[in-house]
């Protein structure tokens, strides 16, 4: 900017910002600024730098400053005034350059401060989330993430949008090129209605996996090849410990089922439907009674389910 504007005008601009011009000079400069956008931009920069310099604060002058000034004046008078004359050169011309230098120094100090803070700041505790963005539940609420791969993403997005609208659920939806993310909070009846609607199109899912946040109980649990009945059992379980235990049992059963050659052998051998694979039996010993086998039963949840549903295109 200084190469395109006359140095005399730069002096006037600095004097204008410092309030050192007469009324006639101010009027003349206002007229030029109104016609020349370059001058107006230069004035704004000078005023901004002046405010920056004035906000840096002031430091108390040394006690012997007046003695040094007096000695310097006496030295100049003995040398014939040459030193003083040199000091009285066109200082206004270089005032703008001085402001630029001060601004650069302030920016450098700020950058160094940010670097020092990033190096010396206390480290934050690391939370293991299995690389996924979990929803923060309430004190005893549930946070889960249902990841579904579909062949026709657009068609499934339309179905999901219509389902959530019909159920009257408040949803925070985000659209990406190859996936759509839904974040919602629902209660017991809403959960049953949502699962019932998903069950109608579950056969069109390429894959479905549930990631359950175990909270203080342990690490997140991944239930691969999850089915609608299993999803309802987990989401409707209000006790955190039983919920995580049930999810782990279903995850183990699904893993075994996926590993078998026919994938239906285990269900056929025990006599349960494909949508309800067996849970791992846990013996319960009671005093004076024979050994019994107990199964986790789903119970209604009153704290709400914080569920994230991710529809991803398989292509």
Walk me through this protein's architecture.
The structure is a single chain. Strand 6 and strand 7 form a beta hairpin. The strands form two sheets. The chain has a six-stranded mixed beta sheet with strand order 2-3-8-1-4-5. A two-stranded antiparallel sheet has the order 6-7. The two termini are 54 Å apart. It has eleven helices and eight strands. By secondary structure, it is of the alpha+beta class. It folds into two domains: 7-58 and 90-120; 142-282 and 294-313, no CATH class. Helix 7 runs antiparallel to helix 8 and helix 8 (188-201) runs antiparallel to helix 9 (228-235).
Radius of gyration: 37 Å
Query: What can be said about the biggest beta sheet?
Result: 6 strands, mixed
Percentage of residues in strands: 15-25%
Oligomer: single chain
Low-confidence stretches: 121-140, 270-302
The outline comes out as elongated
How many DSSP E strands? 8
How many domains is the backbone divided into? 2
**Proportion of helical residues:** 40-55%
Number of helices: 11
Please give the order of strands in the largest beta sheet. Answer: 2-3-8-1-4-5
Derived from helix and strand composition plus strand pairing, the structural class reads alpha+beta
Q: State the order of secondary-structure elements, H for helix, E for strand.
A: HHHHHHEHEEHEEHHHEEE
Mean pLDDT: 74
């Amino acid at each position: 900017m200084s190469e395109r504007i006359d140095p005399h005008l730069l002096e006037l601009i600095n004097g204008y910002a410092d309030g050192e011009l007469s009324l006639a000079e101010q009027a003349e400069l206002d007229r030029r600024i109104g016609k020349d956008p370059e001058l107006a931009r230069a004035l704004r920069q000078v005023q901004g730098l002046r405010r920056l310099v004035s906000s840096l604060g002031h430091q108390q002058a040394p006690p012997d400053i007046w003695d040094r000034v007096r000695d310097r004046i006496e030295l100049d008078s003995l040398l014939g005034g040459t030193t003083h004359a040199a000091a009285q050169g066109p200082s206004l011309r270089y005032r703008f350059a001085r402001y630029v230098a001060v601004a650069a120094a302030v920016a450098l100090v700020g950058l160094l401060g940010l670097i020092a803070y990033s190096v010396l700041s206390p480290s934050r505790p690391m939370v293991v989330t299995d690389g996924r963005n979990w929803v923060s539940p309430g004190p005893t609420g549930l946070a889960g993430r249902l990841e579904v791969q579909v062949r026709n993403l657009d068609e499934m997005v339309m179905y999901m949008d219509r389902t959530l609208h019909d159920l009257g659920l408040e949803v925070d939806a985000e659209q990406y090129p190859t996936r759509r993310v839904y974040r919602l909070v629902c209660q017991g009846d809403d959960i049953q209605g949502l699962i019932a609607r998903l069950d109608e199109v579950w056969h069109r899912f390429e894959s479905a996996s549930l990631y359950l946040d175990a909270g203080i109980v342990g690490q997140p649990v991944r239930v691969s090849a999850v089915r609608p009945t299993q999803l309802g059992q987990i989401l409707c379980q209000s006790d955190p410990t039983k919920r995580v235990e049930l999810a782990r049992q279903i995850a183990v059963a699904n893993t075994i089922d996926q590993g078998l050659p026919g994938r239906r052998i285990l269900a056929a051998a025990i006599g349960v439907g494909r949508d309800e694979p067996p849970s791992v039996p846990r013996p319960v010993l009671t005093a004076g009674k024979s050994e019994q086998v107990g199964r986790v039963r789903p119970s209604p949840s009153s704290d709400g389910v914080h569920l994230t549903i991710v529809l991803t295109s398989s292509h």
